Amino acid sequence: KITSAALAGPHDVYVAGSFSTRVWNGDKFVKIFNIAHYNAADQVWLPLGVGQLTCSWCIVTVFALAFDSKKRQLHVAGKFNAIDGRNVPAGLAIYDLNHGRLLAHPGGGVSMKNIAEDGVGTALQIDEDAGILYVMGSFERLTATRQLCAGMAAYEIGNMRWTCLADSVYNLEPSLGGNMLLTPHGLMVAGKTRESRNPNSWQDRSRPFAIALLTSSLISAESKTENINSSPKTFRQFHWSW
User: Fold this and answer.
1) What is the per-residue pLDDT across 193-207, written as a single tens digit (0 to 9) for each?
2) Residue 37, CB-side half-sphere exposure with 13 Å CA sphere
3) What is the pTM for the complete model shown?
4) Per residue in 92-106, pLDDT tens?
5) Please, what's the largest Cα pairwise distance for the chain?
6) Cα dist. 199→49, 171, 205, 226 in Å?
7) Measured by CB atoms within 10 angstroms of the end CB, which terminus of the chain is less buried, N or C?
8) SS3 93
């Protein structure tokens, strides 16, 4: 079945899920597994150039795609832990359209508290202007930093920097699936609120469903280098509100 899709320009769309099929590419029949590329100009379905998601313990399923038009890269989230049978950090991968290769994600992957247990990426949103990839899923740790993080994180693409976004005050059910959306106002996350004694948490129990808004601001970090001509390093600071 197909579970996600992403536009990649005026003529190209990628669809993904858990499937295998055979299509005519204009010259011959080719096999497609889990991620397919449709070119509207040529009216043809194609597999990825090089690379196929695999899993040592599960049936591969892609739950989310997010296309970065600036870098021409397709971010992939789902249930998998290998590419062409070679282990990669679980839950995240990236397809580089410039080179036509499916690769391990530069930000690593996701796992459970025990890093040997694979996590699953279930939703993605990308803010190209800010250079942020938002990741949601069933996980408890980020493999690149080994930081504990319950189900939601932001990856700054330029800095290759992770920020855990899990916050008990703004904890919504479900914490996985397609319940987040990037808007001009920020990232909106919808769901059922959890009861909390924190005064900043959602207090109207008669209306338990709410939308939490995540915004970010750019701040500069003081450089430890002695080179006064070097540019200050910047990173994102994230803020939740109702």
Assistant:
1) 877 778 778 888 889
2) 20
3) 0.92
4) 999 999 999 999 999
5) 64
6) 52, 14, 13, 45
7) N
8) strand
